[in-house]
Structure formats: C-alpha cells, structure tokens
Write a structure and sequence with these properties.
alpha+beta; 3 domains; elongated
C-alpha cells in the first residue's frame, strides 16, 4: 500500500495571489506550505512502514535481528538486506503485537506520505554527504531486477546532486524508493514503476523523481501554476546526471527520443504555447511540452550561454535566496540576472514569452581563402546553441560551437566569420539535443 494525499491541507497564502484557490484537477500537481510533522502510523503486525521523515522508534516495532540490520545500514556504504521476502512473510521482522505504532518526524517540508507491506523486500544503506549521512532505502516485490539496484543508485544520486548539479547538498535525512505504479515524487519518498528490461530508463526515472527534492520541495514551487519551474528542472537534472551515468552519446539519444522528438516533430499550434502560460490553463501535449521539454531546453541553453561556472553561481543565487519562499517565474528571472551580473531579459523574453520553436537554416555561405562567411537564419526563433560542422574536400572534419550569444543582438539572423584551413566540401548545422524542425536546410554543399 502507498498512502499519499491522505490528510486535509491548509491552502497556501502568499504575497502574489493571496489564498491559493486553484483546485487540484488531476493534471497539474500541488502547491503546499512548509510545516513540521510528527506522525504515528498504526499497522498490523508483520507490516513494515516506510515514510517521509526520520524513523523515531525502530526499537519499538522491529525484532532484534532486523533492528540490528537497519541500524547498521545507517552508517554503512554497503547494501544491507534488512529483510527478504521469506523473512517478511514468516512474521519474524516486526514485533508481534496485534498493532504496531510506527513513528516518524520531519521538519520544514511541504508534504508527507508513507507505504506499508508485509511481503516487500527491504534494502537499505546510507551515503556520506557534506554535513550529514543520509539513509537510502528501497522496498519492492521480490524479483524486480531494477529495484535490486535502486539502493546503490540512490547512494550515487544523492551524492552526485549534492556535489555537481545543482551542487546543493541533499537537504533531507533520508530517501526511500517504493515499487509502485505512479512514477511520482514526494519529500524523501518516490513511488516508481519497475522497468526491469531497461535499466537506463529505470535509473533515469529514479533520477528524475529524486531531482524533485530540489524543485519543487526544497524551493516550495507552486506546481499548479508553474509546472515548468519544477518539472523542467527535474528533466534538466535527469539529463545532466544521465551524462555521468551513461555517457554523453546515450544521454543525448535518450533525451532526444524521450523528451524532444514528440514536440519538435509536431507543428500543431497546441505544441507551441508560451512557456510562461499558467500550467493550470494547459492540457495534453501543450502542458507536457511546456512543463518538461521547452523549459528544460531553456535552462540548458542558458547554461551553454553563461558557461558552467557562471550558470552555477546564478543558480545558487536563485536557490539560496528563494528556497522555502515559494518563488514565482519573475523571482527566477531576477535572481539569475543578479547572480550572473548580466541582463538576461532578452533571453527570458525569447524562451518564455513567445511561441517559438527550433528551426535554423543556412541562408548563405561563401569561402574566401581561409575565411568562411556563414549566415544562419533563425526561422523558429528560439535562441539555441549549435555546432557548425565543416567537412573538407579531403574528408576531414572540424567542428565549432556557437552559444546562444550569437542571437543576443539579432534573434532572426546571425553572420559568422569562421577561420578555415582547407577547401570546404560541405557545412552542417548540428543542434544536438536542440533538435531542428527542418533538418534538410541545415546542410549545404559548396
């Protein structure tokens, strides 16, 4: 059993909209305020409970051998099999009271949930972060091959997010993954479908849901109105950690096939509504593209434009100033401006306030001795990075990268002067994950 959304909440009152009056309609997600929770869950004997928060009374509900294993996991880098299926079913794991009361406590979080089972396998370990050791646990049906790896994946995940992107320490004391059906995130808990025949997909699902720790939970995002402020970042972090896990080529392939392709290949107007549009006013693919795809591409384009060091400085300025304070899009825009020391309004207007798409075109090209004069037209409008791939007549190739800076002064056309070494046979514009709608006009032979 996985129990979420199980208690009434007080509506958020903020300084932008007053009382939040948008009802949950099954499509958009949630907007909750920060609270401290102490809760007790009464469960029949032989049922183990996993929950948001710190486990307060393991001595009162676990039998000695399983208590020992659980406590060992809290200080071990090894994967501890706290209880296997036969042990769970045999009645050995929990105290044999008719009912056991499992107690948990969590501070400064926006939600809590719990799961319970009398037959799921229970694995656990922990990982040393910058200032604390965090517990990681997995509960799953025996034989779920991907979930057998979840505990190790989560150890890597929490440490990587803390040290790389976003480069902010995982803010909670624990993370538990439960095999379910929803692929859904909660503070310190995720409920994921098993994907035993595709470990890359399974792991990226876990990456994505755990990335939600930061957006929306750490920041306090209003997901109902601004889904792109949390799903877009979770998609971005999923892609970045995917590079570390699977390599650049596989990460790019997955991102293009699973995220970008369905949007860029569909020219219907519903696909291209401005990202700034309130998520509660969108449905279908229009919602999905804004929440996950275009918003993520905007964050990655800005990372390319600023460079990793300055982008991280600006991102930390945003996160440091606004975590726990329910930021809205304009808080993000202003924080990134201040943190980078640049006026990025042209970029935010381009990506958030238009119905642009991605479509570059080679308008003209000429080689003058050792200089290539290339004019690129931005038909689609988005300020995207791209590579210029030169193929010389002798078969060798050379690649040059251009950031979104080339669109800062003129978002419709850019003229590039590129030094070249030999006579050119052909030129190709390659956007990588910034997939182009009309690929045919990205290639030009001389």
């Amino acid at each position: 059993f996985y129990v979420a959304y199980s208690f009434p909440r007080v509506s958020v009152y903020d300084d932008y909209n007053g009382w939040d009056m948008l009802a949950h309609n099954g499509r958009q997600e949630f907007y909750n305020d920060f609270n401290d929770y102490s809760f007790a869950i009464s469960a029949p004997k032989n049922f183990v409970v996993w929950s948001t928060g710190d486990f307060q009374n393991p001595e009162e509900v676990l039998n000695p051998e399983y208590l020992k294993r659980f406590k060992e996991s809290l200080k071990s880098d090894k994967i501890i099999h706290v209880a296997n299926e036969s042990e769970m079913k045999s009645g050995k794991v929990t105290k044999q009271n008719e009912w056991n009361v499992w107690k948990f406590k969590a501070s400064n979080i926006v939600d809590f949930c719990f799961a319970l089972s009398n037959h799921y396998v229970w694995d656990a370990s922990s990982v040393q972060l910058i200032t604390k050791r965090a517990s990681v646990q997995a509960a799953y049906k025996v034989g779920a091959k991907d979930f057998e790896k979840y505990t190790e994946w989560m150890r890597y995940n929490l440490k990587w997010f803390s040290e790389n992107w976003p480069g902010v320490e995982y803010p909670f004391p624990a993370m538990t993954a439960v095999q379910g059906y929803a692929d859904m995130e909660y503070p310190m808990m995720i409920n994921d479908t098993s994907i035993p025949d595709d470990f890359q997909d399974a792991r990226l699902t876990a990456d994505h849901e755990i990335a939600h720790t930061y957006f929306p939970f750490y920041m306090g995002i209003n997901e109902t109105r601004y889904a792109y402020m949390d799903e877009g970042w979770a998609t971005t972090l999923e892609y970045l950690i995917g590079i570390a896990e699977n390599g650049q080529e596989k990460a790019d392939e997955f991102f293009k096939n699973f995220r970008v392709k369905r949007w860029i290949n569909d020219a219907s107007a519903e696909e291209d509504q401005p990202v700034i549009t309130m998520s509660s006013q969108l449905a279908g693919s229009g919602y999905g593209n804004n929440a996950y795809v275009k918003s993520s591409l905007s964050y990655l384009a800005l990372k390319d434009y600023l460079g990793d060091e300055l982008f991280k400085k600006a991102l930390h300025n945003y996160m440091d100033n606004w975590n726990g304070k329910h930021p809205i899009p304009w808080d993000y825009f202003n924080s990134m401006n201040a943190g980078s020391g640049k006026n990025l309004n042209w970029f935010f207007n381009n990506w958030f306030y238009t119905n642009h798409y991605i479509d570059l075109k080679i308008a003209s090209v000429a080689q003058q001795d050792k200089q290539l004069v290339l004019t690129v037209e931005n038909v689609g409008g988005f300020a995207v990075p791209f590579d210029v791939v030169l193929t010389y007549e002798d078969g060798t190739t050379e690649k040059g990268h251009f950031t979104p800076a080339v669109w800062e002064k003129d978002q419709k056309m850019t003229n590039l002067n590129i030094p070249v070494k030999k006579k050119i046979k052909s030129i190709n514009l390659d956007g990588g994950i910034f997939m182009d709608y009309t690929v045919a006009d990205n290639l030009k032979s001389l």
